[in-house]
Structure formats: C-alpha cells, structure tokens
C-alpha cells in the first residue's frame, strides 16, 4: 500500500446537515425508478411540511429494490390510495405518485374554497384562483370530466352548501385544518390534521370533508363509525361526535351529512392499536388492516356488520344460527 499526498485537503470544511435527524411530516415531491445491473433503486425527493422551522427543506435519498423495501413501498402506495390494479401487475405509474389526478387536485382546491366561505370571503373566487393554475396542465380526468365541468360542479356545490347553512364554524382561523399531536411512548408522536371542528345542525362535532363522484351508502345506520380515519381523529381529539360532509359531484349536485358517534370502547381499542402499530413500524412489519375505506370497502359486504355496529337486528338478518352453537355459550361468559 502507498499513501498519496493531496495539498489543501485539510482545509475543506465539513458540510453542515441541512435538516437534523428526527421525525418530520413530509410531502413526496418525486419518486422515480433508476435502473442498475445489480442494485436498481427508486430516487426519492421529499419536502418538509412540519416542523415549520424546516418547512420547504428538501430531503432526498434512495430506496433499493430489495424484497423488504418493495414490501414497504407497496404498503405505502396502497395506504395513500394508489391504484391496486397497477400494484397487482407490479407497475408504478409515476404520474399517479405525483398526484396529477384531477379528482385529487380538485378535492384539495375545494377545501381551500370552503375555508374562504367560513372566513366570509367569496368561495367561488377562491376556487377559481387555485383551480385555474391547473388549467394548462395534463391532469388525468375521469370519463366525462373536464376542467370546465369540474369547476361548474364545484361552484354549484359551494352555493348549495352555503344555502343549507347546516354547518357553523365560529373561528375558522383556529377551527380549520387543526393540527393535533399525541406523544407516544418511546419518543414517537401521532400527528393528525383535522379538516374542521364546529357544529352540524347545532351539534358540536368533528367534521371531515369528502368530495366524490358517487353517493356514499347510508345504510346500515352508523356504518361510518367503523371508518379507521374517523376513529383516529376522535381518539386524538377526544371528540366522540364526528361527521362526514360528502360533496357529491354529479348532474344534480348533492351534499350528504353523515354523523356518527365513536364509542369509548372503540377509542380504547384504537389506543392499543396505535401502540402495537408503532412497535410493528419500528420492527418493519407492515400488515394489511380492515375498515371502511373507498374504493375497496369490505365492510359493506361483510356478514358480521351487526356485530361490529352492535345492532342485533343486523345480526339476526345476516348471520345464521346453526345447531350445536349452544355448546360455545361459555365464550360469552369469558368475554363478559
């Protein structure tokens, strides 16, 4: 071995870290595949959203295509609404990862317009100002949709919502897009952003906005108490009364108001689930989870709906009692 002398090497200053180690809320700006003969990988670029002191900073790195890492990536894409058909064919559409779907962009723009409405501003103008930024972009529209059609539908829904006057938010600056942080054991944190906290028909509750091209089913009663997102929001805020306000984009616009009550037992179960999930994440275990989620909603066709919703009439209607079941009555005593 030999040593080589490089003049001036000791004068090179170390490059300071732009963002310190820790947990951050980030946005995926870019995810692109890079081929390599032995170690193919995904190049990832993230922008920091929170903490505010580091907002806008960029994090970048590589995700190598090992079996374990691809399992994590598949879970990540599924949980954030990526097309399951593409995942089944082991395909990644980079345009979808960058969220160029018109329905997604329109939904976010609609939330901005709702904020303007509660601040006593012109919601239609607010929607126009944001939506027109995407007019020249190649967004992916669903069949029959267009930029102009989605704008017209949004304006009609905003007018209908304002005219119904069923939702009241007294302090929009503090009650819209509210951030909650729940410290967990081991230094982890559970972070949630709530769409709104206000009143629906005079009843104080947590509000979740939804925009969709089709109505949400309203039966059986209380179905959306099984929605893991609503349960999570109720758990972190301590507000048992929650409601989804669904803005349905169609020829005759419609708004659905779907209030539910999250039970104390659900909150306790969810708190235990959070702790278990944190441990699994730390151990790189990413398991599938059930619940009311769209477009894949297994709860609608499940025969055990009545058991989860504690509605005996549904149990009698959907479940069949067979001879010999009395032998297991002791399980009821154990459960009690």
User: Unreliable stretches, pLDDT < 50, 5 or more residues?
Assistant: 12-16
Per DSSP, the total helix count is 12
Report the count of strand segments.
9
Percent of sequence in beta strands? 15-25%
Mean pLDDT over the full residue set:
76
The largest sheet, given as strand count, sense and whether it forms a barrel, is:
6 strands, mixed
Helix content: 25-40%
- State the shape: globular
Cα-atom radius of gyration: 24 Å
How would you classify the helix and strand content by structural class? Answer: alpha+beta
Please report the distance between the alpha carbons of the first and last residues. 75 Å
Element order: H for helix, E for strand: EEEHHHHHHEHEEEHEEHHHH
Topology:
Layout: E1 25-34, E2 41-50, E3 58-64, H1 67-79, H2 84-88, H3 94-97, H4 102-118, H5 123-131, H6 147-164, E4 167-168, H7 172-175, E5 176-183, E6 189-200, E7 203-212, H8 228-237, E8 241-248, E9 254-261, H9 264-282, H10 305-309, H11 312-318, H12 330-335
Parallel strand pairs: 7-8
Antiparallel strand pairs: 1-2, 2-3, 4-6, 5-6, 6-7, 8-9
Helix pairs in contact: 4-5, 4-6, 5-6, 8-9
Question: TL;DR of this structure?
Answer:
This protein has helices spanning 67-79, 84-88, 94-97, 102-118, 123-131, 147-164, 172-175, 228-237, 264-282, 305-309, 312-318, 330-335; strands spanning 25-34, 41-50, 58-64, 167-168, 176-183, 189-200, 203-212, 241-248, 254-261. It has 336 residues and is of the alpha+beta class.
